[in-house]
Amino acid sequence: CARGGGSLGNGLGTAGPRRIPGPGGTRSNHRPASSFPAADPCPRRPVSSRVRGAAWLVALLAAFAVGMAVVAVLEWRDNPARSWSLLPGVVAVLVAGVVFMTGRVSADDAGIRVYAGGLVKMLHVRPGAIGAAEARDITPGEFGGWGLRISGAGVAFILGAGPGAIVNRTRGGARIYSVATMDDADAMAGLLNSLAARQHPGRS
User: Does residue 122 contact residue 116 with C-beta atoms inside 8 Å?
Assistant: First the structure.
C-alpha cells in the first residue's frame, strides 16, 4: 500500500486533522479524543522505541547513590546498625535510576505500553481504549517532571524534552510517552489511530 508521511491523517483517505501549534511553536497534528480516523486499509508494522533520560539527571542519581554508599561505609565503623538502615535508600535510588530513567515504548496490534527499565510493563492502552493519538514535542514541565508522573493532563512516562506520543483514551486521562525520535512518534500515532478506527467503525 502506498501511504504518505507518518503524521496523523496521512494515508487514511480523509482530510487531515486541524493543525495546531505545539509547545515552543512546534506544529503538530491533533485530533480530539471524541473523533476517530477513517480505517486504514494498509497494515502497519509494530513500532518500538528505546529512550533514555537526560545524562545529567542519570549522573545526579548515580552521584547521590555513591554518596549514600560512602556514608554507609563510614557509619559502619561507629554504628553498624545505622549503616544497615541506609542500605534501603541506596537500593531505592539505584532501582529508580534503572527503572525510570530508561525505557522501551512499544506499539502494535495489542496497543501501546512502555517497559520501564526495559522490563517493567506499565501504561498499557489496549486498542479498544484508544480514542486518538498524536505525535508532538513534549516537555517535563507539562506533566510534572521526569519519570512516571501523574498530573491533570494524564499519566506520563517522560524522560526529557523531545518527541512524544500522546494517546487520548475513550475513558479517563491521556497517556503520554517519551520516544526516541519524531519518526517513532509519528509511526506510533498512525498505527494507534488505525487501531482506533477498526475498533470504532462508523464513528467520526
Answer: yes
For residue 202, the number of C-alpha atoms closer than 13 Å in the C-beta half-sphere is 0
User: Contacts for 39-44 with beta carbons within 8 Å, 24 or more apart?
Assistant: 39/12, 39/194, 39/197, 39/198, 39/201, 40/3, 40/11, 40/12, 40/190, 40/193, 40/194, 40/197, 41/1, 42/1, 42/3, 42/11, 43/1, 44/187, 44/190, 44/191, 44/194
Buried b (16+ CB within 10 A) or exposed e, 107-129: bbeebbbbbbbeeeeebebebeb
Q: Is 203 helix (H, G, I), strand (E, B) or coil?
A: coil
- Give me the DSSP letters along 20-36: EE-GGG-EEE---TT--
pLDDT (tens, 9 = 90+) of the chain, 204 residues, equals 544 333 333 333 333 343 334 444 444 444 444 455 554 555 578 999 999 876 676 677 777 777 777 777 777 777 777 667 777 777 777 777 667 778 999 999 999 999 988 888 999 999 999 999 999 999 999 998 888 899 999 999 998 899 999 999 999 999 999 999 999 999 999 999 999 999 877 655
